[in-house]
Amino acid sequence: MNDILKTCIVDDDSIYQFTMVKTLESTKLPLEIMVFSDGGEAIDFMLDNLDQDSLFPDVIFLDIDMPVMDGFQFMEEYVKIKPRVGKKITIYMVSSSLDPVDIERAKKISAISDYIVKPIGLGRLKKIIEGLLADRND
Amino acid sequence: MTPISNRIELQERHHQIFIEQAPTAIAMLDKNMVYLAVSKRWLKDYKLDEQDVIGRSHYDVFPEIGDDWKKNHQDCLKGAINICDEAPFKRADGSIHWIYWDVRPWYNLDSEIGGLLMHTGDITEQKEKELEKKRFETILSDCSEVARIGTWELNLLNNEVTWSDTVYDIHEVSKDYKPHLGSTLEFCEEEESRRIAEEAIHDLMENSREVDLEFEIKTPKGNIKFLKVVGKIEYVEGVATRLFGIAQDLTSTRESERQLNKAYNELDAIFSSSSIAVISTDKDGVINRFNSGAEHLLGYSAKEMIGIKKPEIYLFEEELNVFKKDMELEFKGDSYDADFNYRNEKIFNTRQWTFKRKDGSTFPGLKSLTAIQDKDGLNDGFIAVITDISKIKEVKDELRKKNELLNFAEQITMMGNWKWNVITNDVKWSNNLYSIFEFDSEQSELNYDTYFSFVHPEDKVMVSQHVETAIKIKKFENLVHRIMLKDGTVKTIKLMSEIFTNNIGEVIELFGTCQDITESKKAEDKLIEAKQELEIFTQKLSLQNQQLADFTHITSHNLRAPVANLNSLLEIYSYAEDEEERTDIFNKFSSVIDHLSSTLNTLIEALKAKVGDANEQKEQIEFNEVLENTVQMLSGAILKSKAVINSDFSKLSSISYNKIYMESIFLNLIGNAIKYSAEDRIPHIQIKTEVRNGKNIITFKDNGLGIDLDKHGHKLFGLNKVFHRHPDAKGVGLYLTKTQIESMGGTITATSEVNVGTTFTINFN
């Protein structure tokens, strides 16, 4: 079994992308990181690789505010293709917004595991990744 | 005496005996009209004695004989013969004798006239019988005609039928009609009558039963008649030979009988009625009739009243006195007849009386009093017909009370009611309607024009059209319009109406109410005004709320994002492994800080627009000038994209506005149109001003990339929202544009189609 956790960042903020990659790398955990600048790019990738979902990420850190297709619009598209995806994907919605409207809306989507307010911080990120790795090994 | 003379003497003697003893009245007279011989019958018939006659002149015996007869006698003495079968002969004592006679001369042996032979007979008795029969027949015929009785006859030997004239009359057929045995059936139309007639004919023919029946016929003229037919059979030597009888027309008798019955029944019903009292009195004023209605109404029994009491027992003295006085006034007038008694006048009076029951309670009643007069014109009592009108009075009182209530209600609700007869144009108003219109009710007759003359000049067309339509569609929609009183006061009224039609659907009457709603209309207007103000206020408030929400959103997303980044960068910085990495991170710091300060600047701009006094810095701005400036500022981009800009400011060339905002709006919208133009076509931008419904509007239309508004519409004008993966997309321009427009009291909207183009519409006010 492949021990590497495929980790995906979907965010248009290049600084955030940079800090996330850096932070994930600093955990020294077995990760494979992929980055998409908006929901559209991410969903296109999944649609292109529906027949080989081994390429699909295990975990997605999804931003809300993005051009072309935002986090919520991505979730709408994802829910449509989810039945055709054999793999379990854990999705965290990540945003700098403390707006309760956003938080409430995210929590209503069952496919979203949790809502995380930026910045995530190394400690929290490490715990999430370790948890996911542990689940897989069980 | 010679034998011859003896023989002659003997012969004359024989003649004499023959004459004397002849069974009829015979007289023999000589040429001088002297009696020679008479028969005993002659003496008896003329009540004479022999010695009074023989040797006496005929004219002495009958002095009543006139000259005409004397002349007849002379004629006969010359040879004439006078014979009469019957003639009235008035005797000297005045009695009439009917006689026949035969007067002729007799001849002697020498064939010379010797005198007259008179032979008479008294047929008075026979004649009187004949006359009597004739009289009976005349009477019978007269009776038959009057009683409409005809006779008929059926010869049973040859079945021949004969009718008298009256029978023809009854059947209303001409004399040409030939009656026969079945004739009766020809006229019987009604089933039962036909059965009766058939049965009677059958009984007659088979059983020789005599006829006695009543039945109905229908004449050829279509008249229904009722007949009675009676017939008897005549037998000759035990054989029925003839059926004869009468036919009587009972139609009018039947009809009279029926009407009489009806009248009797009606009268009986009235007299037996328990709700109408019928009481009559005799000439002394004592009650002699007291029906069950009277018992019921007054509580007395007929037994205790009839022949005992007078009407005074159930009447009030005061009312009786008033009545007597009134009657005296009516009939006596100014005369001072001491014998005057109203009771003897032809009183027929109907008025309301108060009646006292046996138990002492009273009730109002309507009494019709009729005087009965005997043949001398003196009073023979009265008949009174009394009905209890307490129910009617109650209803009337109730109605009056309701009417008062209605008047009161109309006053309170400032309402009146009216009725308009469309056919006669007759109009009626309630009292309060006159008050509403401040119109004198005595002034003139009302019609539709009276009302119409009050209609406010500006509402006249509307009102007349409304009424016309209402009559056409037979439905009156409620109508509010103004009226102008004579003194110029304007009132607002509300008109409601029902429309009534006759049985062929023509409108005949309108009935409705008219309410003065001037005050409530004023209050309503105020309320509407207040509501509008409230709505504007609410709108402002919700706008402010929206703006507040926008700010929350902005601080949440646009300010927290760079701060979060700073935190993350700081964290990474702390465990950066080498200098190169630290430099890299530090560069990122400055990028984030740049972004942060730019966002803050935008926010400050926006805040300025929101809280600032942009409205106070208005000046008249020519759209042409603004466009020229914009084109200059964007000349590089326009040149590069070869963009074509068309403008049409003919409808609205200038506007009072904040100049900086207007330039910013033009710069942003034209800039966006070039920035997001389609790669495969030259950008075309059309800018146009117009005035729509009093609103100043400007549109910017491009043929660029377009935006999927279904997906992104909600954040089109948000801060830092970008929709294209365009390197220059910052998501600031439209946010600022919107903020500026709204701060000046306007709105901006967009319509777009992906890859066709976008149109932004700004409504300045």
What key attributes describe this structure?
heterodimer, A: alpha/beta, Rossmann fold, five-stranded parallel sheet, B: 765 residues, alpha+beta, Beta-Lactamase, five-stranded antiparallel sheet, 24 helices
Describe the structure.
The complex is a heterodimer of chains A (138) and B (765). Chain A is α/β, with parallel strands linked by helices. Chain A is 43% helix and 21% strand. Chain A has a five-stranded parallel sheet, with helices on both faces. By secondary structure, chain B is of the alpha+beta class. Chain B folds into five domains: 122 residues, 2-Layer Sandwich (Beta-Lactamase), CATH 3.30.450; 108 residues, Beta-Lactamase, CATH 3.30.450; 116 residues, 2-Layer Sandwich (Beta-Lactamase); 122 residues, PAS domain (Beta-Lactamase, 2-Layer Sandwich); 152 residues, Histidine kinase-like ATPase, C-terminal domain (Heat Shock Protein 90, 2-Layer Sandwich), CATH 3.30.565.10. Chain B is built from 24 helices and 27 strands. In chain B, the strands form six sheets. A five-stranded antiparallel sheet of chain B has the order 2-1-5-4-3, sandwiched between helices. In chain B, strands 7-6-10-9-8 form a five-stranded antiparallel sheet, sandwiched between helices. Chain B has a five-stranded antiparallel sheet with strand order 12-11-15-14-13. The mean pLDDT of chain B is 85.
